[in-house]
Amino acid sequence: MCGIVGYIGLNKTINHSNKIIEDAIEKLNKRGPDAKGHFRDEFCEMGHARLSIIDTSKNANQPIYDKDQRYVLVYNGEIYNYLELKKELISKNYTFKSNSDTEVLLYGIIEFGKEFIKKINGFFAFCFYDKKEKYFLLGRDRFGIKPLIYSLNSERLIFSSELKSILSYPIKRDIDRQALSQFFRHTYIPAPRTIVQDCKKLLPGEIMEIQNNKVEISKYYSYYPTKLSDDNYETAQKKIKDLLYKSVERRLVSDVPLGTFLSGGVDSSIISAIAKEYKSDLQTFSLGFKDQPLFDESKYANEIAKHIGSNHHSFDITSKELYQNLNDFLDYSDEPFADSSALNVYLLSKKTRENVSVSLSGDGADELFSGYNKHQALYFSEEKNWKNSIIKNWGGLSKLLPSSRNSKIGNYGRQLKKLHYGLNLNSSKRYLEWASFMEESEVYNLTSQKINYDYLEPISSNKRSINDFLYCDFNLVLDNDMLRKVDMMSMANSLEVRTPFLDHKLVEYVFSLPESYKIESGNMKKILKDTFKNHVPKNHFNRKKHGFEVPLKKWFKNEMSGFIKNEIFENNILVKQGIIKQHGIDMIKNKWINNSVGNNVYHIWSLIMLNNFVKKYLV
Do 360 and 498 meet the contact criterion of CB atoms below 8 Å apart? Predict the structure, then answer.
């Protein structure tokens, strides 16, 4: 796990100072604190910051070269089947100086070209350079677990693992107005946009090739739509179990200490239970929130740890301790990202890194098997029964209830309002509404921009299948929110996180299964829970899903009240810079003053995150 950065001259040679690449690499220090290096010739410079996981010796430092130094590679990620691929390359007379997967990737591309990427089981972002042919190949893994951001014009391509590293170069820093609107709508910016107009994200499953100064981006991987499997339910269970066991086993290979995140929920419990079968001394990690009983699931994590016999670490923290980490969290953030649970992931990663360098997580299972409340709501919306009819026609009365995530009655009121509103939309608009945190009119009040939904091609038609909506979640929520959050917060603490549910063989198979295997009324993740019902106590599979919440409302009324008043509601630098409108802020302020919470607290958080970015990188 590492950070990469580079500059490729297209129509002119490099003439800027070496200090720029050195500064760009330094910006990636937390992604790779163990070693740094860079390569430079007249056409290209590439830098690398290393977090040593496989082969911790100097032989595996990057950039890495072939024996004749014709080829150069910088790479971030892990190839889980690298030993099998290495044997294949040895049979073709390649010799290796290290035991790393990096060298396997280098020689694999030399031998097979871009087709080698399809052989890889893992996650990655890389840049390969053939100095003789002036050929470059950049790639990102199938599901976007590892990021790759770039800035392209007629003269050069700049790429990096993080936006802040690209901003070491003298590029235009104009705000992408559409990205801004999309950010307020979702609390994150969907790929391929970034907050900076001149920077883009390479999409999951894409490669970029440069030959003769011509740049071409293409898709090398697709997993949907696919022909439905005709496997019966029992056969499907057996295959899922076999595929997930193999996935976990692959992801336990490490030359440094390794553990698992264990929240006590379905996904992390299954991963931890399987991992314990392979690793007798497994360490598991969770956060406990003693002063937030509504969101504290530490007792469930402790029960699972006791059940599987892991060496469990439960970090009991308070709202005060969480707040004390806020400045470090903001300092690491670059592109605005307002999923507030990122702060919890930051602290969990920080505590976990004190014990291990690698952790497995349950990310991806919600999007793969249907684990979000909105999936149950989407399923419910297609049912024709009296409950559906009553909520659709009379659910507007829910406006009389409180609406927030900070209490059971408030959360019920919030969900009922969203359900009523969504039931009165067509299926595509319904999905979009339930995947959003700010209404279109509120976005327009802030930005004076109508939202371009060019990133929502998968739901452009009026599709109704749950499988279709899960595919939408893979492209929208998983890539841009969940995986970005985990990558950003784990890398802020030099921790590698691996995701067994995102083994591409497992994903392909589960997407081929009918939706009836995954969800039914009142039962999400049906086949996953049935498959692993003997691994975890049954009562843990029947609990309602809880969010990974941060006490924003409490902070805004106490520790941050002065900042909110003086820098968000009034004297806002975003308004002074012409980025957003005071009119929109005033409407958010009035809701806050009148205690009309709902999603309003997340709107304020979004303004705080945007304010942080503008102060650090634009002003």
Answer: yes
Q: Tell me the two tokens of residue 57.
A: 């010796």
What strand order describes the sheet that includes 2-9?
35-40, 44-50, 2-9, 156-160, 149-152, 200-201
Query: Residue 10 has which token pair?
Result: 């297209």
Model confidence at 464: pLDDT above 80? no
The residue to which tokens 């945190």 are assigned: 437
Domains of the chain are 2-219 (3.60.20.10), 233-322+336-369+483-541 (3.40.50.620)
Q: Kindly give, in sequence order, each residue whose CB lies less than 8 Å from that of residue 120, ignoring residues fewer than 6 positions away.
A: 79, 81, 85, 105, 108, 141
The structure tokens listed for 77 are: 């990620």
pLDDT bin (cut points 50, 70, 90) of residue 73 is: very high
State the pLDDT at residue 11: 85
- pLDDT-derived band at 291, boundaries 50, 70, 90: confident
Residues near 88 by beta carbon (within 8 Å), at least 6 away in sequence: none
Q: What is the pLDDT of residue 459?
A: 52
CA nearest 520: which of 367, 364, 382, 366?
A: 382
**Catalytic annotation present for 472:** no
Q: How many other C-beta atoms can be found within 10 angstroms of the C-beta atom of residue 440?
A: 15
> Sign of dihedral through CA atoms 240, 242, 243, 245?
positive
Residue of 2, 44, 199, 472 with catalytic role: 2
Q: Which tokens sit at 310?
A: 């892991």
Cis-peptide into 63, omega within 30 deg: yes
Beta strands 283-289 and 311-317, pairing class:
parallel
